[in-house]
Amino acid sequence: MTTDATRPRQRYAGDGWSVDAGEGGDLWLFTLRGEFDFAVSAKLAEALPDEPGAGRVVLDMAEVEYCDSSCLQVLLRLGSRLREAGGRLAVVTTVPAVLRPIELLGLGDVMPVHPSVAAVRASWGEEA
Asked: How buried is 26 (Cβ within 10 angstroms: 0-12 exposed, 13-18 middle, 19+ buried)?
């Protein structure tokens, strides 16, 4: 889901998964689709910024069918780096396969989940 604030920049894809990356100012939007498991985790890490600085990252996971713990670790590390630098991370999804592990593992502080990009922006005090 690309917003007016972000423009597509890169696409990463493999067998059964893809990541579209868009950027606008200090906001990065990554749209993940498909299944993310151990075989994909290293490629997912390569697709996400190494040094996000104090930026803001939104992970749109509304079309993710599966996400295992190895990929959640990649996202958790990104969230931790962002927090340390004063940045923010948010996940957009209502998919139980993504939502349930985040809730069960108590990762909501580092990876808060919202139902839409507009809800993320509102939580950050911005207009959608």
From this structure: middle
Orientation of helix 69-85 relative to helix 96-104, angle to 10°: 60
What are the chain's domains? 7-123 (3.30.750.24)
115 vs 61: CA distance, rounded Å: 10
Instruction: List average pLDDT for each run of 10 residues in the chain, which is 128 residues long.
Output: 53 89 85 96 91 86 95 94 92 95 91 94 82
Q: Quick check: pTM over 0.70?
A: yes
List the end-to-end C-alpha distance of the chain, in Å, as a whole number.
Answer: 13
| Structural contact between residues 9 and 21, judged by C-beta atoms closer than 8 angstroms | yes
